[in-house]
């Protein structure tokens, strides 16, 4: 493992002082010795996507040793900031929190050198119930058996904030025999499939394969939230989120769209990454988009309309150059670059 100075010096040496037009040939002739991607736990979505990304990038950097490290949304931000990884996968709301010195960062050490490369997946706050359930609103969760992950996790905190926006607390869930069960992702969905839980809430990528697996047992449905609740959530605790609508038919019991809030999962790099190298990474993934989408079903929504937008943090100049050349729209960041 190279340290941050050595790693960035290797990248800079590999791509310095040549025009973007020369980048494809340069990448093959002077590729960096090492490239580290911050992914996620083995078998998880981030890990699978990181490994697939490494395979695609190895075609343009065949002599480069590409290492995909376990990590996660928060740890990847810290590793790229500190030069321990070159690329990382994270969520836009986590990137904003870290930029402003909130968890996973600290006020004394924010992550303000993260730069967006691609918007690759979408997440949303989702509460899944049996398609035939009489649960239609947050208020209907009173007295029910519910899981929202474990205390302190992103999904648990998001659930508390969503309840607060509706004038509720977790105590309301546990009234009249209800209980909020602190279960893992797999435990929660197994219990939902088995009928031991009435509802599972998660800030999750969509449509997640685990939820689709639940449908082999029974049709699922995601709750739709009132605009007033979503507006209050956005006002009080929705930094990095935006309103989204999960389409009718997404799940077997989903006969109407589900209005909720969500955030994007993004590929990012450090601001110190040379522009030409960032350009080459985005170019290679975009030009092999069918192969990239085939890595995981959750990558299937990448399009010209989404790939350059919604990253919250500033885009890397190398990515901007590529998108401008391709006529792909990008969104500006309100954060200082």
From TrEMBL:
Signal peptide (UniProt feature, chain positions): 1-29
A Pfam family of this chain: NMT1_3
Keyword Flavoprotein included in the entry's annotation: no
Keyword Ribonucleoprotein on entry: no
Keywords associated with the record: Signal
InterPro entries in UniProt: TAT_signal, TRAP_TAXI
Stored NCBIfam families: TRAP_TAXI
Protein name (record): NMT1-like family protein
């Amino acid at each position: 493992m190279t340290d941050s100075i050595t790693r960035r010096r290797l990248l800079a040496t590999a791509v310095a002082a040549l025009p973007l037009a020369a980048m494809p040939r340069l990448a093959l002739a002077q590729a960096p010795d090492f490239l580290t991607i911050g992914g996620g736990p083995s078998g998880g979505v981030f890990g699978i996507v990181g490994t697939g990304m490494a395979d695609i990038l190895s075609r343009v950097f065949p002599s480069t040793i590409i290492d995909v490290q376990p990590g996660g949304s928060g740890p990847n931000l810290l590793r790229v900031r500190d030069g321990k990884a070159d690329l990382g996968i994270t969520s836009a709301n986590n990137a904003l929190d870290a930029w402003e010195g909130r968890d996973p960062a600290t006020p004394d050490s924010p992550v303000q050198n993260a730069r967006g490369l691609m918007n690759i997946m979408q997440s949303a706050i989702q509460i899944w119930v049996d398609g035939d359930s009489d649960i239609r609103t947050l208020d209907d969760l009173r007295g029910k058996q519910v899981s929202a992950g474990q205390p302190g996790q992103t999904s648990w905190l998001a659930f508390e904030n969503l309840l607060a926006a509706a004038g509720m607390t977790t105590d309301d869930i546990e009234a009249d025999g209800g209980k909020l069960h602190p279960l893992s992702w797999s435990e929660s969905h197994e219990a939902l499939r088995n009928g031991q839980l009435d509802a599972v809430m998660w800030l999750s990528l969509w449509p997640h394969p685990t939820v689709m697996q639940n449908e082999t047992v029974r049709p699922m449905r995601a709750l739709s939230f009132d605009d007033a609740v979503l507006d209050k959530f956005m006002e009080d605790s929705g930094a990095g989120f935006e309103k989204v609508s999960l389409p009718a038919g997404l799940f077997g019991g989903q006969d109407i769209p589900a209005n909720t809030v969500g955030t994007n999962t993004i590929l990012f790099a450090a601001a110190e990454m040379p522009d030409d190298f960032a350009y080459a990474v985005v170019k290679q993934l975009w030009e092999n988009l069918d192969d990239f989408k085939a890595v995981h079903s959750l990558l299937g929504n990448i399009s010209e309309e989404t790939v350059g937008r919604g990253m919250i943090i500033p885009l890397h100049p190398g990515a901007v150059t590529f998108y401008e050349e391709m006529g792909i729209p990008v969104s500006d960041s309100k954060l200082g670059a």
